[in-house]
Amino acid sequence: MSLTMMSRKSKFKYFEPTAVDRISECPDSVLVHILSRLEETEDAVRTQVLSKRWRFLWTFLPSLLFRYNAYDDYGGEGEGEDFRVARNTEFVTFVEKTLFSSDCKLKKFGVEFEYYPRFTSNVDLWTRFAAGKGVEELSIQLWPDDTEYELPQLLYDNSWFKELRFSHCRVIPGGNVAWYSLKKLSIGHVKFSNDVIERILAGSPVLEILELHNFEGFSRLSVTNSCVKKLILSEFLNIWDDSGLEISAPYLLSLEMSGRLGKNCRLTNVSSLVDAVFNCDFMCYADDRANDYERIQNIVVVFLASLLHVKNLTLGTWAIQVLSIMEAKGLSSPLLNCKCLTLDMEIDKYVLPGIANVLKSTPNVETLIMTWSLYGWRLYGIESMVLLNYNEEQYWTSQKWTYKCLTLHLKNVTISSRLMNLMMYHRDSNFFSFIQFLLRNARVLQKMVISTPSDDRLKKYFEAAKKLLSFPRSSPDAAVIFC
């Protein structure tokens, strides 16, 4: 095709600019870095069709990450398990071809797909490949159809690993664990004994972060390694075990607990904790809810008493509701020394007294953060009638208690956009009443920051902003900021 085109109505010539491929002129190291920024290896492999220049570049990638969900290609009626097995077989074939074409020392290898027992030898091959390549970060995320994959023994004796992530895998080390370089370990959907978790911790001398999700089988977690600074626990599945889980971690700095954590959990030694997230709940006996509440209340009180020294504390819906019932009964939470308090909840009549209880029990709070997450079990049916015996619309205006944190210390308030969205969607007067209460009583408040979205809800935010800005403030320096 000629680069010169003649107009039929004039003699002017229009020149089509010659395309210049600036990217392909970059050095190999730059192009490989660009490819490594792609989320999935399959996208990087596809670039080989661009030109001869790109044909083998992907083989030098230091990270190979494979993810496939057959349901994304599910065509509907008539395409069941056979379809999924066939598509996952294609995925397995692609992974193996890619691995054997790799021509670089791998730093990271990860695979995520629907696992069937027929793929055991394939996954075994991948793990041997990763171990032989000296992979530092290994992720095996499987969704088993029935039988879970058992990690091969060679993985337990590897000093290259710095980060491991397993899901739906059987963790059964035949001997001692030797993860001498491991700094982060995340295991989900797993069942193992006290002995196994002890061997894992003993064989990971420089471990810094431990994450356990959807786990069961053990009742004791003793973290005596001074390197472990962060522990994340969610969904402890020992729901019928009355003994619950006992945690001892004297050097731990950060603890996050979320989801349903069995029937009980005890912190016996967490003296170094700085950050704590208590956004979980414990099983209730459906056939004896009234009497079971005393057990639940005791769990919360004992748990909070273990966190007296924590500087940054997050409380979720379940704990705040328990504190609401306690407030209605005239019972206070243990005094907490936190400087930063995060309340992760929806502001409704079931949590208002709990918020008041928390403010009374945290006299030194300087920063208050309010967020909302999808998670949040409720205590409907467990003495909830106690909470219905007050006028929620006048709750904050009727408060006569002097809150020390509001009088002397609270300087910053932050409200997340997700919570703001929820409150505006429901046109919640409880939310605005609480904000008005804060502005009226926080005498040293410096700023209240409210996150706003950049979409078609801005008109509603503008109306909310005018309302919030009209509230009187006791602090002459208080600024309400929408960002």
UniProtKB/TrEMBL annotation:
SMART domains on file: FBD (SM00579)
InterPro entries: F-box-like_dom_sf (IPR036047), F-box_AtFBL13-like (IPR053781), F-box_dom (IPR001810), FBD (IPR006566), FBL13/AtMIF1-like (IPR050232), LRR_At1g61320_AtMIF1 (IPR055357), LRR_dom_sf (IPR032675)
Domain of life: Eukaryota
Positions of the FBD domain: 404-483
PANTHER family: F-BOX/RNI SUPERFAMILY PROTEIN-RELATED, F-BOX_RNI_FBD-LIKE DOMAIN PROTEIN
Protein name, as recorded: FBD domain-containing protein
Organism in which the protein naturally occurs: Rhododendron griersonianum
